[in-house]
Amino acid sequence: MKDKLLERRDLILKGNLWRAIFLLAVPVAINDFVRSMYNLIDTFFVSNIGSMEIAAITFVGPLNNIIRAISLGMSVAGTNLIAREIGRKDYNKAKNIAMQLFTVAVFIGIIITIVCFSFSKEILLAASATESIMSIANLYFRLTVLSSPFIFINSAYIAIKSANGDTLRSMNVNLVAMAIKIVLTYILIFNFNMGIKSLAISTIIGTMFTSCYAVYDVFIRKTVMKLSFKWPKLSKQVIIPLFLIGIPIVIEKSSVAFSFIVVNKYVISFGEKVLAGYGITNRINSLFFSAVAGFGTGLAPIISQNLGAGQEKRAKESIKKTYLTALVISCAVISIVLPFKYSLAGVFSNGDSAVLYHTVNAISVYSISVIPWAIFQVTSGIFQGTGHTKYNMFISIMRIYCFRLPLIIIFTKFTDMSEYSIWYGMLLSNILTGFFAMGLYYINCKNLRLIGDRYLQKECI
């Protein structure tokens, strides 16, 4: 019987490209959608506790996202390096890279947990947490960082499955994990009155479940990519390209998360109600933005495998098809969101008219940026697939420090737009980022090549 990995490899390298794109992208999009849905359900649960709790989780969110940015950087790098070796049919080298990825992920996850748990209050103060939300935010942050080692294990697992073209399996596991989180959160809030602690506890248990399955799937289940429990020897031939590709992603995603910390300072200056509305809008947006983000993530291993097999023309064809798909879906999404903005906002404002007002206004303005967001995400997938993640870092730095923050500061300081300064700053920065990303791809599209191959071509087994 032919292994599923080999079947997916044949599809990616030789089969129908539309089918390959949807096979890889749709599970990722669904997975991201479900994760965003979970965050939205969290917000709904917390809205039954109070607007101050919503403000607290909104404030802590970017800090947790910085941690996830580090794990994502490793995941993207791992996917790229493993996928190109699968494209070359060098499965031993692919497994060796996967083993080293797991080892580094566990080590970094433990270190982050220790540091953040020990210095949580100092970190929150540095992020400008106000006295009114400090105690709630500190409790939530200290508990959520305990899940960091499992988050890193799960990111390594997703990297391996994505490189194999098996995004469906990781999606199914995450669906079960999300269901566990939702049920536990409901029980802990409404049956045991545990408040905001319930969110963190259910997150830890859900991520633990995924980690346990990940270990079974890659270390015990018999597949072409079955890994050994033997402790691997770390080699610079793998570690150098892993960090060469991963660090720009970490900087990129961390910069985005940090920008939200800075933006929070301006939002909270308009009051906790505005911050609550801003947090609800971000979670609603993330739900629908995930529908297009998955196509960028799904495109990356298609590019890596095809370039690894020397098929540049096919890689470029997959890019054109993915751009078209993401744009169509993003237009469809915004046509659904805007007519139902009052209904969406009303679900999470819990009868608070001020929170409802700010949420509706925010959705009306910057939810439209899902269209340029689609362009940005597909372009990001292209550079992830080639390993040129420095371009993604460059795009995000431009997005934050040249577009978003300057616009918000100018609107806040020199106009009387009030909280609309934030909404229009977010919208315009995403539009400018979409144009900038397309321009950067156009400049580099003539010669797609994999980065870091000079290290991997050396013996590393």
TrEMBL record:
Keyword field contains Coiled coil: no
Spans traversing the lipid bilayer: 16-34, 54-76, 97-120, 140-160, 172-192, 198-219, 239-263, 283-303, 323-342, 354-376, 397-415, 421-443
UniProt GO cellular component terms: plasma membrane
Its membrane topology: Multi-pass membrane protein
Keyword Ion transport: yes
UniProt-annotated location(s): Cell membrane
GO biological process: one example: monoatomic ion transport
Molecular function terms, GO-annotated: antiporter activity; xenobiotic transmembrane transporter activity
Keywords: Antiport, Cell membrane, Ion transport, Membrane, Plasmid, Transmembrane, Transmembrane helix, Transport
Pfam name, any one: MatE
InterPro entries, A to Z: MATE_fam, MATE_MdtK, MdtK-like
Main localization, broad class: membrane
Protein name in UniProt: Multidrug-efflux transporter
